[in-house]
Sequence to fold (308 residues):
Amino acid sequence: MYTILGAGGPVANALTTELENNNQTVRLISRKPVNPAKSNTTWKKADLLNYDELSMAAKGATVIYLCAGLVYDKDIWREQWPVLMRNVIEVTKQNNARLIFFDNVYMYGLVNGPMTEDTAYNPISEKGKVRAEIANMLMAEIKAGNIRASIARAADFYGTNSMNSFFDMMVLDKYAKHQTAQWMGDVNKLHCFSYIPDMGKAMYLLGQHPESDNQIWHLPTAKPMRGKAFIELAARIYHVKPKYFKINKLMLFVIGLFNKLIMGTVEMYYQCINDYVFDSSKFEKAFNFKPTSYEDGIKLMSETLYKK
Fold:
């Protein structure tokens, strides 16, 4: 049984679709209700911070996907992520299951060049330090032979209506409404965005291949482009002029005084003023997977979630 922890989020939803389309038995676990689309999918309520609730809900799992997200606040991350990861590790052991953890790149910090699976951890943010801690916790269990698990990492993502993606929220949604786009940081720097449907497909593939266990994978992501090229591409697809204004760190901080979620992005601003190059060639070669191009991804968004 495929069990998704943190059901209801963008990646979890994309993964659920892939599993259902392949007629797998799926159990969704989250605090908030999720309405399954198919009869072979069920939902169980559990708080991932409560070991007893999680243990009961995940009973019988063979592959566990950890796709959970916490409130975007460094203090909450510092307190809750280690507890959550310990609980998930113990439940995975209890079921003799495989664990696939959907992760981000915060632990790498500022990288001069491409981020690869071998990039050293050098976090320069508090959230990055937490991500390094829980990744090391999981890898220590793997190296000790206590668990079969993988870490699946993605870049900043797009392709969801959750509005958790700055590209979706500040560019695609704005152009869909014939408004001026916004861009965080330097439009002349390179950036990568992972396409959410690709993330679902890639997570599904990892679940189908036990030989992929016990290592880190960068999920398939198109090659980087400069911020200005993203803006011009989106404008062309939406048939609007490529109008935009830049959001600097001071503006983020001021807005963050009234919005804790925005304040959480301030310490990550370094990602927006430096090249952000995410290398997924290992996954692409291993699974013969070609990432969706930005052209195709944005075009599909303009026909579905952010209609022009």
